[in-house]
Amino acid sequence: MEEYVMEIGYEAVADEVYALAALRYVSAGDAGDVRPALLTRGHGELLRAAVADQFAMLAAELIRLVDDVDTDDMRLTLRSGAVFPSGAVTALRRGLEHVLALRVMESALSGSDADRYASAAEAAMVSLRVMMAGSVPLRRQCHL
Which one of 17, 94, 124, 143 has the fewest CB atoms closer than 10 angstroms to its CB? Predict the structure, then answer.
């Protein structure tokens, strides 16, 4: 039986957070709004702590779907017996990195801005939980 270990990449999460923050900054200027402060690599220590906190929360949320969690290295071992087609574990890892980035943005903001990121993160998590649980096929099926 194959063991699936996913190491969540801090750099991938950080890059997405920087991109989301930059998009938020640019789009606020187009709408004539006051531009928010721009998150930069100079905020790296703060961001590292926020990503670690959000990973710990995500791991706790997924505890029934994994066999092992290493919060120091941001690593998850998927539940024994899980079977994924080629490339699915990479897609799952990337999806979890995306959720972490959205949750970091949510934690840094307030009001409707935070709500948008929270909604996007939860929508992504619904699909990822289903995929991890293996409760439905990865391909769509038509039932008449």
Answer: 143
